[in-house]
Fold each of these.
Amino acid sequence: MPTTTIQMQCHLPIPQPPAPHPLTSRHVAVIGAGAAGLVTAIELRREGHSVVVFERGDQVGGTWVYTPKIESDPIGFDPARSKIHSSLYKSLRTNLPRECMGFRCYPFVAKDDPDRDPRRYPGHQEVLWYLQDFTREFRIDELVRFETEVVRVRLVEEEEEKWKIKSKQRSGKDETEIFDAVVICNGHYTEPRVAQIAGINEWPGKQMHSHNYRVPEPFRDQVVVLIGSSASAVDISRDIAGVAKEVHVAARSVEDEKSGDQSGYDNMWLHPMIESVHKDGTVFFQDGSFVHADIILHCTGYKYHFPFLETNGIVNVDDNRVGPLYKHVFPPALAPCLSFVGLPWKVVPFPMFELQSKWIAGVLSNRFALPTQEKMMEDVEAFYSSLEASGMPKRYTHNMGSSQFEYNNWLAAQCGCPAIEDWRVQMYNTSSKNRRAQPESYRDDWEDHHLVLQACEDFMKYTTHKISDRSAS
Ligand SMILES: Cc1cc2nc3c(=O)[nH]c(=O)nc-3n(C[C@H](O)[C@H](O)[C@H](O)COP(=O)(O)OP(=O)(O)OC[C@H]3O[C@@H](n4cnc5c(N)ncnc54)[C@H](O)[C@@H]3O)c2cc1C
């Protein structure tokens, strides 16, 4: 296959607006070395801050570090259970095309290396390798303290705007240090959220959350009820159908008239949500149908969880709303010294992390100004009121979907950097449509070749990598 080698500088041109005050450099703690923490570290360092990244694992990559291990409580109720960070399953391939998914300053292009995965929707290992390449390219590991878990973050009482961080190394050693600012990048796909089901305490079957799903084998010959309709739920139901006796998918999005056989399978059925479950093992659905099931698999999402954060009640998680937060990033009363990267979901995560962290870095250095605390609170309250008026439950506060690009462009404008590329927006929309239309084959059967070419042309402007046109062929 032909490959193209491109010389480049790996920076998007950023016309910087004049700083409102003299620039300042701060000592900043970043919690987590997943994709969000890595790009945050770069943006902070680029802006002249000194950075320490705390990472409880032994490598970078966060979610993308696959492990076959599962937690001691497969449903995730027991707070004392052994915890595993990643929720990846073995067969996982990305649900976004690589061109769209990658960082803007470091495109996720296919490598000209036979050991790598050149597919447009690669397997999870390729994403981890990409993040490792990114880490090497920007020398981020020198900023990371591995095997060091942050166990407490709180304001220093005597000195306003200073944060005390207590961390614990795997060796058992504790340390407490003072920072000017903290950026929280701890991920939000680790703490399971489960469906409330009438009668569940009496039901004799097993329960599991998709956080602990790795391979289909444990479901062999079982009757499985799987709850959910996300991209992972769709993948997992199909994975399991290969070995299970029956798979019954229950989802809010399935109305009575759509329930029935899942096309292409003779052992999978769609149902509306579960109505109730009973002592004799039956699971009733809202349309009155029922099955005798062995296991309920909750593919029902995750909870935001910041067990280390103490803000005297200023920042709370209420029905999965982390708030109050200005633009999903800064709590007005603690801005700019406390911030969050990566909370929005149903997004293209990496480019959004990049823009959020660029904004944080510039605000911390005084290059960009925030509105007053009162104005930020007004904005937050207006946002919450608009959600309420449109009937949106609180737990969807950080769900972006179609508004993500407007949000990204707002961030880009704050930072004086180019808006999200048209091809990226179109590619996201096209691939989402394709995924809904053909969940089985969207990763290998696509028609947006023209967008791939536009993306590759764009990458050539600022990448130094070898871009293989295998993915465009
Ligand atoms: C099943 C699944 C499939 C996905 N598929 C895609 C996809 O196809 N494309 C896509 O773009 N995105 C996908 N995502 C979203 C994915 O989560 C994001 O792409 C991204 O990896 C999130 O990065 P993060 O840095 O926010 O969080 P994480 O990757 O979760 O990283 C957080 C890091 O923080 C560390 N940490 C947590 N708490 C502490 C602490 N107290 N002290 C120190 N360190 C701590 C963790 O060890 C971890 O390394 C998927 C997610 C899941 C769960």
Amino acid sequence: MVKDIVIVGSGGSGWMTAGMLVTENKYKITVIEPEGIPPIGVGEGTWPTMKSFLMEMDLDIDDIGGTKKLGIDYIDWYVNHSSKHNHFYHPFFDKTFTKKLDMNDIFIEYINGGLLEKKLLFEKLFPESYGETFITDSYGYHFDVDKFIPALKEKCINLGCKVINAKVEDCKFNLDGSIKSVVLDDEKEIVGDYFVDCTGFKRVLISKMKNTFIDLSDEFLCNSAITTHIDLKNEKEYYWTKCSALSSGWVWNIPLKDKIGIGYVYSDKFISDTDAKKELNEHLDIEGNYQLLQWKPGFLKEPFVKNCVAIGLSAGFIEPLEATNYQMQWIIIDRLKALLDGKIQNNNANTYVSRWFNGLAFFIISHYFFSKRNDSKFWEYFGSLKIPHDIKNIINNLFRTEDIVSFASIKNFTKKTLILPTGLSWFYLLISYGINFKKELYNK
Ligand SMILES: Cc1cc2nc3c(=O)[nH]c(=O)nc-3n(C[C@H](O)[C@H](O)[C@H](O)COP(=O)(O)OP(=O)(O)OC[C@H]3O[C@@H](n4cnc5c(N)ncnc54)[C@H](O)[C@@H]3O)c2cc1C
């Protein structure tokens, strides 16, 4: 029986894991936190699960330097010239809210062949007052990691988590291949029953276990980002992550409590870091100091191996579009809790997590496939590709139903198609790109 859990790494995933486990009141939790390897923090956007997590930890929006997030505002993704279709939203919605707005009629009209006027849909969804009244409970947060981590750490320590300031250099194994202990830079050995790898792209523990990395770099071209923060402008408060398409990727704009997080996500095969900086400077009309982050898009086939699990960036990272990583952290920790309770085994947990990563990957890549931009080699590349069969299957499944509202619930959609995110999210995506699947999709 697992009693003693060792979490290696103290970024957002390490402390989120510590928080979700320590509140169970069942385990002795130790977090290993090195000096001099700072965690990633760019101004992150999250899904509504973040709201539940903060409530569980008794933290609020001010503790994390955050703002509410109703969804994502896509700008200039449809075409590269001026068009009324060049502005659309991917909102968070629950079933009740969708019912309130009679969305079913809208969707049925769309399925029956109408190429929906996006304006009609979004005017209905976003009356001017929407942001202030928050008629939905379905929102996430934008937050500042520099505030989130200290606030969460303090809660975890108060609830009994122990912190060791050291770097993990190695680990020792039991005869069955499970981890026995981790060896620190001062040569001390920390033993445990279960080990969590939250060391980001370094994958300090999980890389020592047998595993397969599902490499998505052939499909996901974006593998770099330059990031910065700028001062809050005197513009009206907004509750969206803004994502604007540029020549070789896209820029996020994330409103935090006292600053704005900015980053240009691009493919280094199509633009150099220097040219990306130039383009971002022009886009923002500033001379920015940027931090460069790079990754290999993909995920581990088996984040759960023996008595070890990878959580956060160590489990995988596709790219920042749709802000999926804190959501994935939450999903994996939730599966870890079920595993520790003896309700599931490693193989069930791995299948579930892969299904999430795959579903999110299809969704993210669809933004690139369905865009009609052709103003650079980057966008031309996506224009030249055929829509993968898996995406066609998802869409076929969606269009086969008459009752979109009930079909779009996570449970039904997952059961029928084994694909995430929800059917509603897929509808927003298709409607926003003006996809009339009967005519357009199969020509591609
Ligand atoms: C460009 C970019 C944009 C992103 N945007 C979003 C977003 O909008 N929404 C979202 O949900 N996610 C986003 N993410 C992902 C999100 O930032 C991460 O999921 C989150 O920060 C958690 O990271 P982590 O804790 O797994 O890794 P990290 O933040 O890298 O932390 C790893 C930790 O491991 C420690 N460590 C490393 N080596 C050792 C060692 N040998 N011994 C002990 N400790 C060690 C380090 O000190 C560090 O604290 C983005 C990521 C990137 C790259």
